[in-house]
Structure formats: C-alpha cells, structure tokens
C-alpha cells in the first residue's frame, strides 16, 4: 500500500493544519480530494484507502509516524479551495446569513476552507485572496438615500478599493433588504455592479434575502449548492 494515499482529518481555520491523533484517522483519497473525508479508522484496523481504489486496507501501527509525515507533506502540496467572504452587517442579519451559508457549505463542500472578514477590516488586496470572492451586504439609506450599500461596504468598495482590478476573479454576491422599501435588497445589485465594473466574473446570480433571515436557511443552502456547482473550474469558461 502506498502510504500517501491515506490522510487524516484536517481542521478548517489555520490552513492545512494537521490534527491527526495517535490512533484515529479519517481516510480519504488524496488523488481526488484531500479534504473529502470518507470515514474514520483506527490504526491497525481495516479502513485505509489504497491508491486508485476505494477498497479498505489495514494501516499498521509501525508505519504510523511515516504515515503522518507523508500526510503533512501531501497537505503542503495539495491546494485547498478557499471561499473568501467579505461582508458588512449592522444589526447582524447579513452576518447570520453568512453563518448559515458557512454551516451549509460544511456539509455540501467539506473540502472548502471558508474565510469571512468584515468590510471595515478588509484591505483592497484582501479582495483578491481565495479562489472565489463572496461579497455580502444589507441595503441602507446611506447619505439619506434609500437602496444603498451598508456604509462600511460602501467605503471599502467605492473608496479604499475603487481602483482594484478583479479581472477574471470568480465572484458571487448576497444582498439583504426589507420589502417595505422601494429599492428592496438593492445592495445585491450594487455589489454585482462593482464586480462587473472591476472586471470580476459573476459565477452565480446574486442571492437576495428579503426581511429577517431567520427561517430562510434553506434558501441560503440551496444557493450555496449553486455556488459550489458554479465554482468548479470547468464552469468558468
Ligand atoms: C436606516 C435603514 C435603512 C434601510 N434601507 C433599506 C433600503 O433602502 N432597502 C431595503 O431593502 N432595506 C433597507 N433596510 C433594511 C435592511 O437592509 C434589513 O433590515 C437588513 O436585513 C439589515 O441587515 P444587517 O443587520 O446585516 O445590516 C434599511 C434598514 C434601516 C434600519
């Protein structure tokens, strides 16, 4: 058996940090997806994955250290897929949607690493990090005019990052709003306009969440699935 075809569980957060324990491993095929965990197996018991197959093979205790080293090396060479979310939220609704999406993506796309940062702490170059950029903002009456971006998102996009070049960058947008306003959830349109004007690539239609997001988790999850499907490079041509 080739040892590098067995991996252990990685936690999200600090990138590629291995948290394998002495006697318990999760197994996956590194050839296909490092982060796609197929199950857990005790060392010495059937359960490892052999190269090119999904058959279970035993892992012996004596090879454990070498196994861990190979895992660490493999982790360094296999890139993660990173979704970078930049959001602005005033009363917490947009943040709630970002959390709901993140929770949903944990099961839909377990190999994804998700980084979420608030607009006020984001620098223009941060918008270029990750494989896909997701912008999320509620709609406000910034400057006394309804149908505007959250002020923090406005400052980021139209002041700090007004000259940023997003050429080719896969992007997606979420906008929140309230049906009682004439320009309902128009933040989504503003975000998409920014992406297009800066030559980014919108890979899915924007998600609009109207009124309180509580109870709308399913819609968020359905959109998350579309995002995952659209994030496959083959769809970007
Ligand atoms: C002062 C103010 C202005 C708002 N203006 C709009 C608006 O123009 N259009 C809209 O659809 N929603 C508007 N909303 C509703 C918010 O976008 C909505 O409540 C959203 O869920 C808030 O999300 P947040 O807590 O993440 O900021 C406004 C809310 C407030 C308090």
How would you characterize the overall build of this protein?
By secondary structure, the protein is an alpha/beta fold. The protein is about 25% helix and about 25% strand. The strands form three sheets. Strands 5, 6, 7, 8, 9, 10 and 11 form a seven-stranded mixed sheet that branches. The protein has a two-stranded antiparallel ribbon with strand order 1-2. A two-stranded antiparallel ribbon has the order 3-4. α2 crosses α5. The chain is globular and about 45 Å long. Bound molecules: flavin mononucleotide. The site of flavin mononucleotide (FMN) has 20 residues, from α2, β7 and β9.
What is the secondary structure topology, with strand pairs?
Blueprint: E1 24-27, E2 39-42, E3 46-49, E4 56-58, H1 64-77, E5 81-88, H2 93-108, E6 112-118, E7 132-140, E8 148-149, H3 151-160, E9 170-177, H4 187-197, E10 201-202, E11 207-210, H5 217-230
Parallel strand pairs: 5-6, 5-7, 7-9, 9-10, 9-11
Antiparallel strand pairs: 1-2, 3-4, 7-8
Helix pairs in contact: 2-5
The site of flavin mononucleotide (FMN) has 20 residues, from helix 2, strand 7 and strand 9.
Low-confidence stretches: 1-72
What percent of residues are in strands?
15-25%
Largest sheet: 7 strands, mixed
CATH class of the largest domain reads Alpha Beta
CATH topology of the largest domain: Rossmann fold
Can you count the helices? 5
The helical percent reads 25-40%
Structural class: alpha/beta
CATH superfamily of the largest domain: Flavodoxin domain
- Give the mean pLDDT: 75
N-C termini distance: 38 Å
In the CATH hierarchy, the architecture of the largest domain is 3-Layer(aba) Sandwich
Compressed to H and E, one letter per element, the order equals EEEEHEHEEEHEHEEH
What is the domain total for the residues? 2
Shape: globular
As an assembly, this protein is single chain
What ligands does this structure carry? Answer: flavin mononucleotide
Q: Total strand count, please? A: 11
Radius of gyration: 21 Å
């Amino acid at each position: 058996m080739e040892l590098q075809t067995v991996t252990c569980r990685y936690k999200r957060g600090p990138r590629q940090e291995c948290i394998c324990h002495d006697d318990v491993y999760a197994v996956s095929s590194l050839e296909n997806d490092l982060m796609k965990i197929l199950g857990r197996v005790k060392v010495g018991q059937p359960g490892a994955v052999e190269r090119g197959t999904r058959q279970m093979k035993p892992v012996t205790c004596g090879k454990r250290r070498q196994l861990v080293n190979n895992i660490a090396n493999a982790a360094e060479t296999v890139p993660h897929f990173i979704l970078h979310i930049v959001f602005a939220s005033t009363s917490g609704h947009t943040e709630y949607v970002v959390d709901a999406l993140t929770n949903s993506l944990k099961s839909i796309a377990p190999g994804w690493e998700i980084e979420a940062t608030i607009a006020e702490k984001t620098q223009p170059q941060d918008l270029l990090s990750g494989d896909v950029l997701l912008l999320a903002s509620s709609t406000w009456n910034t400057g006394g005019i309804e149908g505007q971006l959250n002020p923090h998102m406005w400052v980021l996009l139209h002041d700090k990052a007004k000259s940023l070049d997003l050429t080719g960058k896969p992007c997606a947008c979420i906008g929140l709003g309230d049906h009682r306003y004439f320009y309902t959830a128009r933040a989504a349109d503003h975000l998409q306009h920014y992406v297009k004007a800066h030559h980014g690539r919108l890979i899915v239609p924007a998600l609009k969440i109207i009124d309180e997001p509580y109870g709308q988790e399913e819609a968020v999850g359905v959109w998350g699935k579309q995002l995952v499907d659209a994030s496959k490079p083959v769809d970007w041509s």
